[in-house]
Amino acid sequence: MKLHHIGIATSDIDATANSYCKPLGYKAISEKIEDKVQRAIVQFFKIDGTNSYIELVQGNSESSPLSKFVKNGAKQHHLCFQTSDISADLANLRENGFFIICEPVPATAFNGRKIAWAMNAERCLVELVEEKQGDILSI
């Protein structure tokens, strides 16, 4: 596995892009993408010439878990790791004490590539995304 992106929760993607991503040199590399299964709107940012990605994540409604997360003052949402074997890496996380929140499912933001979610005892949220060569977000 290798780090793919850091997910930052926000109540306003545009405002966070202007106040956080832009000053750090990140530029939008995707449009805003709604994933109804994840109940989220996301947009990806990258520093030119690097493999350094940030995903801004916003709830797609007031009832979305992300909206509630942000209302509680949280910002850093998750670390995402790209994997060539999502099932094996998810099993490894499980064996090492992670609770599996979501088994692999296709994700709109990744053109149908599968993602899975896990959390450890310290409540650190991890996303796994399966690798696919040639995709805009493959690093």
From TrEMBL:
SUPFAM superfamilies: Glyoxalase/Bleomycin resistance protein/Dihydroxybiphenyl dioxygenase. Gene3D superfamilies: 2,3-Dihydroxybiphenyl 1,2-Dioxygenase, domain 1. Keywords: Metal-binding. The keyword Metal-binding applies. InterPro entries: Glyas_Bleomycin-R_OHBP_Dase, MMCE/EMCE_epimerase, VOC_core. Pfam families: Glyoxalase_4. Residues 2-131 form the VOC domain. It comes from the Bacteria. PANTHER family: METHYLMALONYL-COA EPIMERASE, METHYLMALONYL-COA EPIMERASE, MITOCHONDRIAL. This is VOC family protein.
